[in-house]
Specification:
Helix content is 5%, strand content 43%. Strand 7 and strand 8 form a beta hairpin.
């Protein structure tokens, strides 16, 4: 189990089981939403996610029709993204998780819109846009 919390500590959350494959997303929306060059996201089944604390502090922003980013309303910590097209899964922002994590970094996605000031210097596969679901 992986445990995490928001910056202000208003709530804690956990992910049961493996986080599996993690992708680094370089899209402009992730950069703006996190203030960094990219986000690290793990696609998990909703049943793996649980939260303790006031759920009313989780705010979702619909940045495109059917695409939502969730964050703490008090401190702004990013939590997950979800799509109404894929209701069984969420994409957890793994930066808020603590301790050793069972993950495998597999790719950089949306590098077609990455920050021009950031150089990718590893040997992971790079994709101009998103990979298809399941890939």
């Amino acid at each position: 189990m992986a445990l995490g919390r928001c910056q202000c500590g208003a709530f804690e959350y956990s992910v049961e089981g493996s986080l599996g494959d993690v992708r680094y997303c370089h899209c402009a929306k992730c950069r703006r939403g996190n203030g960094t060059a990219f986000t690290a996201n793990a696609r998990i089944h909703r049943s793996q996610w649980s939260i303790e604390g006031p759920r009313d502090l989780i705010t979702e922003y619909e940045h495109k029709p059917g695409l939502f980013k969730a964050f703490c309303a008090r401190c702004g910590s990013p939590l997950y993204a979800r799509s109404s097209q894929d209701p069984d899964d969420i994409r957890v922002r793994i930066g808020g998780l603590e301790g050793p994590l069972d993950v495998r970094i597999t790719a950089h996605v949306w590098v077609g819109s990455k920050a021009d000031w950031y150089e990718i210097e590893d040997s992971l596969p790079c994709h101009a846009e998103a990979l298809p679901s399941g890939a």
